[in-house]
Amino acid sequence: MASTCIIDSKGYRTLIKIIAIMMGIFQIVVAGYGFIVINMRCAIHLTFALTLIAMLKPVRFKSNLLTDVYNIAFTLICLGCGLFLTYETRSAYVLPYTLNGPSQMDVIVGTIILILVLVGTRRTTGNALPIICSVFILYAMFGQYLPGLLTHKAYKWRSIVDVVVFTSEGLYGQPLSIASSYVAAFVLFGSFLSITGAGQWFIDMAFSLTGKYRSGPAMTAVVSSAAMGTISGTGVANVVTTGAFTIPLMKSCGYSPTMAGAVEATASTGGQIMPPVMGAGAFILADMIGVSYGEVAIASILPALLYFLACAFQVDFEAGRLGMTGLPADKLPKRWETFKSGWLYLLPVALLIWALCIKNYSANYSALYAIAAILVIGFVFGMKGERMDIKKVLQALQDAARDMLSVAMACATAGIMIGVLTKTGLGLKFTSLLLQVSGGMKLPTMVLTMICCIILGMGLPTTAAVIITATLCAPAIIELGITPMGAYMFVFYYACLSAITPPVALAAFAASGISGAKAMDTGLCATRLGLAGFLIPYFFCFTPAMLMQGNLIDILQVCVTSLIGIYLLAGGLEGYMWRILHKWERVLLIAAALLMVDSGGVTDLIGIAIGAAIIVSQKPWEKCAARKAAKS
Q1: Cα–Cα distance, 179 to 411 (Å, whole number)
Q2: 405 in Cβ contact with 124 (< 8 Å)
Q3: Are 183 and 407 in contact (CB under 8 A)?
Q4: Distance CA 392, CA 431 (A)
């Protein structure tokens, strides 16, 4: 029986599409022309987000009338409060507000906005982030009763609302400002490229290149996820996109459902650290460090490539241990034909890299040029035999608006939490506490920071986890001599990896839904497969050359030593290289890899010598000769 609710009617759904398209157009205007008043841009972005969330994610009751009344009223409240926020960002209002503080109406509307943001965040990201934000707000209200470092002076509710809602230290701060500009522009780019079918071409191309190897299906997941990571900065989205093809393929070739889901989750998680389109947290890091997004993207190249190489090594060793074989050539797509069918997809990505990294254009302009390239190619030449049309353009705008919602709410909520940290001084206190617990030593501080990132990232969206841990933990690492780029990238990297660490591993859970395996088993397996990647942040903190900071010789040296290190670590963790390894060999390989974390002549040479001795003992040349003989 068809629903008789107004919110399910064709007219209501059309209204949702119109508002989503308006949001997409607004963000293109922001990317192209900017917005004079940053707070007004944030307010408009938040108004669109709250209104769309209210309409797209309604609350259902048994009574259709109650369902309509509640949801339409909630939507109108979101729209009205958003417009009030936008109106009050006018320059004519700023001066009297600065002199007199918030009025009674400001406090009332500000309180409602706080509630709406928490509700919107719960509907888009789950319960964890709004609960943590609520704890922060309670801390601002009652923290004066706590002992020791946690205490602060008493604040009135009017003062709290003033900071966390109406200032650039709270709701209008870095997170929402970046979400409403750079992040939105790159979401639009990804949406326009995806609507052309680029995702499937990347998967087909990866399959044609890697399918013949013993780890072929699993390697396809790694390579296609790396390729998708260049245009998508969301781990879960990458799982759903590439996993729909790679997970069934792996299962058909003999991988267990748990292993198939874990391989895809581990590979897709790297999409957030793969330039040029990284996770939303990368844009916030660029602003915190005070550099362009292009510099962050360049610094991320080697860590991202090493992460995917670590994944490739582990899945290849796993395939060898399980006795897997590659697929015959007649079951694989033809490489050249596949490449010819979609090589135009590479042009917008190449243009984006050129604009960001060579011309040093802003992230907004770079994304806009890449979108323009997609439109020109799509309308004039077409992609895979299909030309772009107005219907696809409107659909891309709608998809982009929907994809912006969770990031907008996570950033708005994180901004509120940062406002509380600023108001109460908890951020500075936490840095002091972290250094006290670690004894002011570099490695223990980094380990504690890693744990904080992973724990927070388990229940929070990556963006929110990055913002909070960067605010609380990164200053402590910087004080110990780590470069700002290294410290903030360390935080960002582990916040991304939290997507595969149980008990709450969002990327692994998404993969388990496709593979049919148990969610927790998939998360544990994904963590094991990704362990080699967990070492990479320590490499670039101890050796800044990995972040392209230093001379060419240093960069080349760290490339070689880190590559050898993760290769040895992958073998030690998997218990297989050219044959099944003994326990003592695995221990020595892991020790050799750890010796190479701090890039230095003596430790590197010892690690390489240990690794070389174990590899030679396996007589790999005999294995290669046997394989060639078997093929012939």
Answers
A1: 7
A2: yes
A3: yes
A4: 49
Supply angle C-alpha 235, 500, 467, rounded to 5. 65
Give CA 427 to chain center in angstroms.
24
Q: How far is CA 480 from the centre of its chain?
A: 27
> Rounded to whole angstroms, how far apart are CA atoms 156 and 141?
7
Please give the DSSP secondary-structure letter assigned to residue 516.
-
User: What whole-number distance in Å separates Cα of residue 596 and Cα of residue 132?
Assistant: 38
On the CB side of 21, CA atoms within 13 Å amount to: 12
Structure letter (DSSP) for residue 550:
S
Structure tokens at 539: 């490499």
Amino acid (1-letter code) at residue 310:
A
HSE, CB side, 13 Å, CA atoms: give it for residue 396: 27
Collapsing DSSP to helix, strand or coil, 173 comes out as: coil
d(CA 512, CA 520): 9
Give the whole-angstrom CA distance, residue 610 versus residue 604. 10
pTM of the model: 0.78
Please tell me the predicted confidence (pLDDT) of residue 92.
47
Query: pLDDT of 366-421, one tens digit each?
Result: 888 889 988 888 888 776 667 788 999 999 999 999 988 988 898 898 888 888 88
Cβ atoms within 10 Å, residue 156: 10
Cβ count within 10 A of residue 422: 18
Report the pLDDT value the prediction gives residue 428, as an integer from 0 to 100.
Answer: 73
CA-closest candidate to residue 478, choices 345, 317, 290: 290
Contact 285, 488 (CB under 8 A): yes
**Pairwise CA distance, residues 600 & 604, whole Å:** 6
22-26 — which CB contacts under 8 Å span 24+ positions?
Answer: 22/48, 23/48, 23/49, 23/52, 23/397, 23/401, 23/404, 24/188, 24/396, 24/397, 24/398, 24/400, 24/401, 25/397
Cα dist from 463 to 185, 188, 341, 470, whole Å: 16, 18, 35, 10
Residues of the chain with pLDDT > 90, as a percent, come to 12
Q: Residue 601 is encoded by which pair of tokens?
A: 């002549």
The neighbour count for residue 431, using CB atoms within 10 Å, is 19
